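Quick one, tokens below. Sequence please?
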């Protein structure tokens, strides 16, 4: 089993982000009807709670995570369910996920983990490449706004977020929201893949 900080966290059960419940901002977004069920990718899916919830709402979901232990736990959670939901261990910065294109990409706390601006840009580029034209990416990002925090994942400013994402996708909404797991702020960032100058890629049926 590879030794990575994330894998170590999963081995130790040190998972403060893992509430065991679908993220309420994701739930609100999907239940608003902003996107109809289609093919979805959860990047940095952890133990799979949000991916499984999306599959229960009719999405065909691929959850990927760098940590093989997280993927094992997600697969256990899914069990023998007949849901259209799969999990794979993958470094999203290093390799494109199988089965593109996706209509919806979701990440909760993965994009914000990269300290280098180049890595965040690469992440956004990979999201754009994985999406259909017009496909949506919802990213929930730890924010620099609010009380200072001395532990947990790094925080990102609005400028960090926009600098990485705007060149690659059209930002539709960047909203400061309360963090779900601490008394601080987060960003709700919704962006859309622009039309492809090489020709359209249509949404899957
Ligand atoms: C803060 S956790 C959030 C997990 C999950 N989204 C949740 O909300 O429970 C960040 C996740 O991103 C994963 N991750 C970090 N770097 C990654 C990469 N390069 N490719 C894929 N996943 C990555 C970690 O293994 C970890 O599971």
């Amino acid at each position: 089993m590879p030794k990575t900080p994330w894998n170590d966290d999963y081995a130790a059960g040190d998972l403060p982000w893992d509430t065991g419940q679908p993220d309420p901002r994701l739930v609100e977004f999907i239940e608003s009807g902003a996107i109809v069920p289609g093919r979805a990718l959860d990047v940095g899916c952890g133990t799979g709670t949000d991916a499984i919830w999306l599959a229960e709402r009719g999405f065909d979901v691929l959850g990927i995570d760098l940590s093989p232990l997280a993927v094992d736990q997600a697969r256990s959670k899914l069990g023998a369910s007949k849901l259209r939901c799969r999990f794979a261990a993958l470094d999203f910065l290093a390799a494109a996920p199988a089965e593109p294109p996706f209509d919806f990409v979701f990440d909760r706390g993965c994009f914000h983990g990269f300290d280098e601006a180049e890595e965040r840009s690469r992440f956004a580029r990979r999201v754009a490449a994985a999406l259909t034209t017009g496909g949506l990416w919802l990213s929930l990002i730890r924010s620099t706004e609010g009380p200072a925090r001395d532990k947990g994942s790094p925080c990102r400013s609005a400028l960090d977020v926009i600098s990485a994402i705007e060149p690659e996708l059209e930002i539709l909404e960047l909203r400061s929201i309360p963090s779900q797991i601490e008394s601080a702020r987060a960003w709700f960032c919704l962006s859309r893949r622009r039309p492809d100058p090489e020709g359209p890629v249509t949404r899957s049926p």
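The domain at 21-29+39-192 is CATH 3.40.50.150 (Rossmann fold). The mean pLDDT is 92.
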